[in-house]
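re: ur question from yesterday

yeah so i grabbed the chain u mentioned. its 389 aa long if i counted rite. heres the sequnce exactly as i have it in my notes:
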Amino acid sequence: MIPAHPNPLSPAVDQLVLDAVRREAWFAFNLSGGKDSSMAALAAMLLLDRLGHPRERRIAVHADLGRAEWDSTPDMVAAIAEFLGLPLIFLRRKAGDMVARWEQRFYSGKLRYQALETYNLIGPWSSSSLRFCTSELKVQVIGPDLARRFRGETIVSVIGLRRDESTSRRDTPVSCLDHRFAKPGNPAGTRMIRWHPGVDWTAKDVFDAHAAYGLPLHEAYRVYGATRLSCRFCVLASLHDLTASTCAESNHDHYRQLVAMEANSTFSFQPGRWLADVAPDRLPVAMRPAIAAAKQDAALRRRIEADMPAGLRFVKGWPPRLPTLAEAHEIATARAPILARHSLANHYPTASAVRERFAQLLAAQERRRSCSAKGSGRDAASIERRLAT
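ran it thru and got these structure tokens back, copy pasting raw so excuse formatting
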């Protein structure tokens, strides 16, 4: 039983959510182990109780990130679900955990670079504009599972987002329809909604409410002083939170693993910060030469790629055109040391080979356009000859 408190933290609610309550929808509480998801769940639970929503139509769900998770997170999530009186489902991406996704991204990026399918080498890490840590390992895992599990029902996902967390979240709505896994008019009649009860709260509100209710608080905050919880090391974390994470002994092996990925890939964990520099005293002395070499190679790669012909940089539908012979020579010369650094084969070592490859890529574009337009009768060879002139 959730303890009563004279000054509960009120959740934001709107008519879409109230209508779902009236229809006795399923409510799925997304628990990450962090303070915001926990408090959003608690406030929503109290509101649903007051509105008479049946508890048997509520469930907690956690998408586990594998090696990237703090060791204590699964137990913390279980403790929060128990505190709330919710049954708990643990889910995980079948194709591998967060670390595997980073490894796969860099491996695929190297193969594409070797095949001259990309202009610049692509690093392993997610970013603020490419948050596959959230999209692929959480949203794409939880959403389809809920849609299958509660087929034909209205499903409300309760998510702990706050508008003051970042500029990208300032326009977070109280709730919204979610068509990603339940298209309008789907045969089963499944309907999905996202509800953000804590959009108007501050971090202080959330921490104070944890203390007032005795809601379990993750060791990342309680012991190590972190301001946010996500992965052990998040690509969006502040230096303060990265440093806090390195203070936990249970995170040291993972820290060294990610630094080794920096050294191997020559890409820093964050655009302006090497994870290796956060807590160098946690790294073995034998790793330091590899890190120093990676930083030098990264600087060289950036200079090389900055000097490549600007008119051929990546755009949607790349490549935009066939390079001149001089431009192709620049591209071949620039790629050689990057390919060598990563032990990749140089299939296009000359200007003529680069131009032929661009012609192939442009021909493939033309074929796709022709197929979309139901074909034009031109074969690939004629297209390549036309583009090469």
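noticed a couple things. The mean pLDDT is 92. also The radius of gyration is 25 Å.
anyway ttyl
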